[in-house]
Batch of 2 targets.
Target 1
Amino acid sequence: MARLLDVSAKSIERWEERDALPASVLLRQRLAEVQEIATLAHMVFEADAIRGFFATPLPALAGHTPLQAIANGDGSRVLSMLAAAYEGAAV
């Protein structure tokens, strides 16, 4: 999670300990995007297939994995791919 948000693991620990959200609006938006991606992934894939999806390099992401794309700030493309899969199109 820290890598996806480009923060330290200690920051994540502090937020969890305090049951708080990040102070930065940008970080809160990225966190919301990650949550939306995770929710949609659970709707599209069986539990055991989710890990494979996020770890597989995809041509639509220029050979990056969905996790790499999210970490690089391109979560919207991953979300679009999942939405297409949810609607019945191929990933």
Target 2
Amino acid sequence: MSKEQLVETIQIALANALANLHTATIAKVTAVNETTINCQPVTSRVVNGVSIPLPEFVDVPPLFMQGGSSYTAHPIAVGDYALLIFTERCFDRWYAGQDNQPPLEFRMHDYSDGVAIVGLLPKGSAITIPNVITQIGDTYQEGNYEHLGNMDQTGDVIQVGDEAKTGDTIINGSLTVVQTKGSDRTTMTGVTVIITSGDVIADGISLKNHTHGGVQPGSGSTGVPQ
């Protein structure tokens, strides 16, 4: 074998090895299971000049940001794109709950050992990079929440349950209190002081301009409050 033939043989062997060394690929979600997803790679393989679509990968674990007992999990929908990362060794035993064990099978960089990072988008539907943390969609939160700094909100707030607050409440605008259905009054426990430069209307009667009639027999009505 000549030197040129040896080099060519080595190059072919390296090319064949790299062709089956799987690192990462992009896939589209085809099914969402309870804790895993199914997805179909969107880039086909070319074998002997022929384009061959890759099969659907089933039960792929998605990656969520998690630490301790806290985690952030986003919904996943059919049609989402994901980046599949293939681990160096078979992780079946680890996935079954066994640490520090030899791999169940001695495959390496195999399509069977992928995890999914969902949220990759093509250029035409890419998310514009914001200058502040931005969240679109509904949110469910369990646990304590701490916030430092101002909070701007557009839209209604619907709350079921009590609210405990330490500190003053400043309202720029109107305040409407809707009494409990079936109740003829709103009860405030403790000392409540209302300071206002405007008027207060209770059951159609002005606090600022009301009068009292019949204070003394024949005296008519009093003047407005002073």
